[in-house]
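User: Can you fold this complex?
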Amino acid sequence: MADTTSTTAAAPLTTADGRSLKAALATAQSRAKRRALFLVLPLFLFIVITFILPIGQMLHRSVKNDGFSANMPAISAWFAENPAGTEPDEAAYAALAADLQAASAAKTIGVVGTRVNYDMPGTRSLFTSSARKSKDFVAPFKESLLAADAKWGDPALWGVMRQVSKTYSGNFFLAAVDLARDADGKIIRAPEDRRIYVSLFVRTFFMAGLITGICLLIAFPVAHLLATLPLRYSNLLMILVLLPFWTSLLVRTTSWIVLLQTQGVINNSLVAGGLLSEENRIQMIYNQTGTIIAMTHILLPFMILPLYSVMRPIPPSYVRAARSLGATSWTAFRRIYLPQTLPGIGAGALLVFILAVGYYITPALVGGASGQLISNLIAFHMQDSLNWSLAAALAAILLGAVLILYWLYDRLVGIDNLKLG
Amino acid sequence: MALPVYASPLERIWHYTYLVICALIFLFLIAPILIVIPLSFNAEPYFTFTEKMLTFDPTGYSMRWYDLLLTFGMQNPDAVRDGAWWADAWNNAAWIRAAKNSIIIGAFSTLVATVLGTLAALGLSRPEMPLRRPIMAVLISPMIVPIIITATGLFFFYSATGLSGTYVGIVLAHATLGIPFVIITVTATLVGFDHSLTRAAASLGASPSTTFFKVIMPLILPGVISGALFAFVTSFDEVVVVLFVAAHDQQTIPRQMWNGIREQISPAILSVATILVIISIALLATVELLRRRSERLRGVTPR
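Assistant: Here's the predicted assembly.
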């Protein structure tokens, strides 16, 4: 042993062609590293282009909205030159009149009105109607505009116009958490009748938590049964878990509509069995109950599978040993078995919670009015109200929450341990 | 899960209660999927069992909703059912057109996802792969990020790049959504992959491509195929991205179902659901067989 050490100290090991072994190893390793990277690179670029970039663009839109500033350049410039609180002077009204004329001619006044309307409901018509009369505006513009509509003298309106004249602003994020800016630019709470988003976020997280809890409660006994049965039987029973997993989401949602609706299978059976009178049919769908039942069913396999894969390798001898040492079956379960399943509980609960928070399809189809989640509101703003910046801001908040949970999942469970079937 | 001989009477009662609870949970899992099958043969336009169905009266059952799937959207559905009628159905029936779109989109997105995903999984499972965890986290993220966020992002991105309303756009989006499944299944097959096999092949003079096709590929093929099936099912079942980025005439089966459920739900939806359930049973059987084959190949035997 001492002999070898003295040789290495004297002359560093070399490869056959005389290079130092260390350098040769480093070259070989960096080549292997490059080869591995090279295999992953195409997919990585693909994901960046088709996934990361679009989401980045969406995040960009949540802070950028040029609906006002691009179509009303003169008044936007006036706002930029004059600090907040400046009384609008004749120059401001002249700029406004010029912009209204230009926007009317370019037919972009609708965009402008819509943008202001987001922050101050009921103002869209003010813009469109004034634009129609804009040909008659003459100096002095202040009198001319006020004659067209007295609302132009409203300081609150000028405050809002100052806000929306900024191309980049965090105002949509403020709106997404039920805040607003007043005429002076201070952050205040939104009017009571418009505070819907915070309570919807709370409801989304509450329902996701509830669904996760129910899933855990239902999945635990089943996973335990599957894990303790001999593999021959458990593989057969596993099919009952995997079949829902492979069945189309829309099919499963349709089935729940068929089962739960007031004229559906469950209500009909209860009425036929005499357990329920004809008038008292239970409303189980198109409300929160429907969303919870259907989502629990859909997400249950995501809880059973991680639990099963953790429970399977637990040796039954541990519980037997505890019993032989005098523990009751409950104590043995609580002190010996349960702690060993914690990694599975963590993995399943996090996964189900992450998936439930962003759920869209099932609440949209069976949720009615009270079972809607935040995703449904994002879709509403994308497709119906067309307030895309607000939709993007809501999506950004949801994305932030999901990414934090995803990071936690990676830390606690590890992405590599994600298994399907 | 046998009951030990030393179990007390209370434990015996609990044991059987437990088994009943488990049976009920399995019923909860499977009943909603199976219930649509008999109901799709309903002769009446109801969503529940009619009296005739319960007494197994043959007149209570019919194939009318399956027939509707064929004829809905046809130009001349009442004509004699000859060659021209079938040609009309093939070209014009709404559900057949949706099925054709779904299969085309599904096939191409599966191809993209499987090729790129398998290559990446090979790289990711090499021990010398740098930054393994963060890269893996990025590649799996399409499965984790809520679909509505992905759809919103793609909506903006595609309207800026002119991809909205094109098949290429939908295929790329669906490939992205299917990739995590391919990566997960293929890396799972590669766990415990004996890298000395590739070195042995190389030392015997095989080129990297020969090694890949003759040594690596046969071993990981079960994982690749199940990954591909997952990717196909993901695309075949995807509706939100299609709703956001597809053109109006680009109907797919899920989109057609979505419209059917939202507007006027008819038992025709149940007959589609039945067909889809049968497809998923076939897919599940395939994946299960592949998994067993993979276990046999890798020398893992059931206990």
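The two ends of chain B are 14 Å apart (CA to CA). The longest helix of chain B spans residues 9-39.
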